[in-house]
Amino acid sequence: MREPAVNTSVSEISESPEENPEETPLETPDETASEPAEITFDEQFYPARPKALRPIARRRQFFAARPSLEFDGLNSTYVDWLRNQSMLGDANTMARQLSGQASMWQNSYARPNPRAAVERSPVWFTAYPLSFITKDGQSFLSALGDPELWDAFSKIGIRGLHTGPVKLAGGIRGWSQTPSVDGHFDRISMAIDPAFGTEEEFRQMCEVANEHGGTIIDDIVPGHTGKGADFRLAEMNFRDYPGIYHMVDIPEEDWHLLPDVPEGEDSVNISPAAEEALQKAGYIIGRLQRVIFYEPGVKETNWSATKPIIDTTGKTRRWVYLHYFKSGQPSINWLDPTFAGMRLVVGDALHSLLDLGTGALRLDANGFLGVEKSAEEEPGWSEGHPLSEAANQLIGSMIRKVGGFSFQELNLTIDDIKAQSESGPDLSYDFITRPAYHYAFVTGDTEFLRLTLRLSMEIGVDQASLVHALQNHDELTYELLHFAAGHRDDVFELGGEELTGAEVAEKVQETLRERLTGENGPYNALFTTNGIACTTVSFIMAALGIKDQDAITPEQEAQVLDAHVLLSMYNALQPGVFALSGWDLTGITALDRETVKELTSQGDTRWINRGAHDLMGTSPDAKTSLAGMARARSLYGSLPEQLKDSRSYARRLQQILTVREESGIATSTLLDVPDVSNRGLLVLVNQLAGGALQVTVLNFSDQDIAGSIQSGHLVPGASVHDLFSGDNVGQVDDLHSFYLELPAFQGTALLLKDPVVEEESAE
């Protein structure tokens, strides 16, 4: 597998028609093919009725043209340069090497297997390349493959490493590469970005992880690419490349419907009025269910228009293309006749698994893979679409077919997460209870958390299929789409009131906004309408009423540590994967906004929660990461320092993960989330693989609590053993309950031993 260099360096690859059958002589498409079709009277009343088939495709035609020196389709040298860097070209090469091989049929792939994935990798470290401080002269990938790091991970109990996106991202203008607009999630190549290391270092990291019983988890992005070689070739109408994207060719006679592109830009976001006009003209499906990352004057719709571009036939074209996220992230079309987008994504996945050597993949933005016109005056169907389910099944099945597993970061309703999980990825990010446990800590009341856990059980989501996480690279997400969108009119009981789903979402969001930002948390920030930019530590500080993170006292630091351990226990002492980041392991505070003002200038406040950190303490004097991210304050210190201190976060986490591993909590089944005697308590009743009951009890309040733990699943007469101390702490009475005391911000894991089994064991 070749690795093209950045900017002007070109890797020479010979692509013959036999190796890439779609690389046929250029076609001249019919210029009338993209004219808008008239909407008939019947279609206005029955928008779902399919149109009659009409001639819209033509056989191949040939032409000859003189080359130019411009960055357009007439410059054959430029087109070839783009082809040599394209992801679709690499995908074709990968496919030809794997097709017809017996190894492609050795693994089951039809259905997700979450418990097998959890058993293989139950605890993950989620890295973020831009924020990782390394030794002087050491690359990010080399640092992640350091045996000393994996020795520390092994001691703590971490067995998986999610690298974050490390392949080339951003865009191409002329002969130059432009930087990423979204933290390297705007992928433009299968090649490793030299800023993070080399392919050989990536493979070495996989080998070191394997020697320590670990798994490397890479990323693919099924929803979009960046504006790289594939998009530039698509703009030039080059062969299959327009089929990768949701892009529509607008005839010149209707360019008056498009906005002018500012000087120096290659596209511009269209206004809601232009969106409506283009929809009425029959070109696009119009507005969608929501505008993600909405920003006045920056992104008011999900569509952008390109500047005029000369294609490979010499014709000048303008396109309108879909982007759910930023304008530099054109959305992939999963139902185009060329299936070019599908081929690109699957090829990228196979490259990571079978060339680089990863064991699993994260699917980013995989809930937005289908769009469809809805009834008149209604937004287009773009979330929870069956095409997303079908595409996810294809991706998940392909990954399982070659022996890997996958997880999705899908922020939709619980119903959608359940539907996407039935045949797609093996695991899903826990967007179900993540905002709820934050709300529980802020309020000292677990009622909403218990509500979300019960809803998840009722709908049929297996907790073992979820990735329960502390901080990641994104904001503290509180969109609560289950309540705010899918079930906005349903009635729920919360705080003694009957509230609609929309009212529940607003109550939770407003509480978090008020308690965590503004004068109560001036170091945190709102992130558009999605949530709050903060680290786990800065979230805890704001919830505890600490208004100056730079003046925190030793007593307050101890309280923050206790709270951090509590939140770790919530995520770890239940079925599923437990994930945490370097920001958690080192106790990172939020960056001062002035430090990253250039990065946040367009409204992306998440950069304040992405401060650089030195996990292994290898560069104590470094002010920034290798990528230039400013170093943030660490409350806990490096892992080697913490592993020498039994009271440190890392050592306390080690105790939690030891209990989790030895008892088998990760692959257990959640049976009950019972009512509690104190609103600050949370009780989870889990059934272990061998049939024994395990009970997790957590105190989310700042007060000591003493009370009864009750559930119909508890067997009277069973003895209650503390898995941390090994002590017998009680017995289940005839009311299926037992008594327990818990200090503020503390928790425990308990094992119930059946009295009959104990008597038989004693005999």
Characterize this entry briefly.
This protein is an alpha/beta fold and 763 residues long. It has 23 helices and 30 strands. A hairpin with a 5-residue loop joins strand 11 (309-310) and strand 12.
Give keywords.
single chain, 763 residues, alpha/beta, six-stranded antiparallel sheet, 23 helices, 30 strands, disordered N terminus
Q: What layout of secondary structure does this protein have?
A:
Layout: H1 41-45, H2 76-83, H3 87-98, H4 114-120, E1 123-126, H5 140-144, H6 147-156, E2 160-162, E3 167-169, E4 171-173, E5 176-178, E6 187-192, H7 199-211, E7 215-220, H8 229-235, E8 247-250, E9 267-269, H9 272-280, E10 303-306, E11 309-310, E12 316-322, H10 340-356, E13 360-363, H11 386-401, E14 405-408, H12 414-421, E15 427-429, H13 434-443, H14 447-459, E16 466-469, E17 476-477, H15 481-486, E18 491-494, E19 497-500, H16 501-516, E20 525-527, E21 531-533, H17 536-543, H18 554-572, E22 577-581, H19 582-585, H20 597-600, H21 639-642, H22 649-663, E23 669-672, E24 681-687, E25 693-699, E26 705-710, E27 719-722, E28 728-731, E29 737-742, E30 747-753, H23 755-762
Parallel strand pairs: 1-2, 1-22, 2-7, 7-13, 13-14, 14-15, 15-16, 16-22
Antiparallel strand pairs: 3-6, 4-5, 8-12, 9-10, 10-12, 11-12, 17-21, 18-19, 20-21, 23-24, 24-25, 25-30, 26-29, 27-28, 27-30
Helix pairs in contact: 3-10, 10-11, 13-14, 13-16, 17-18, 18-22
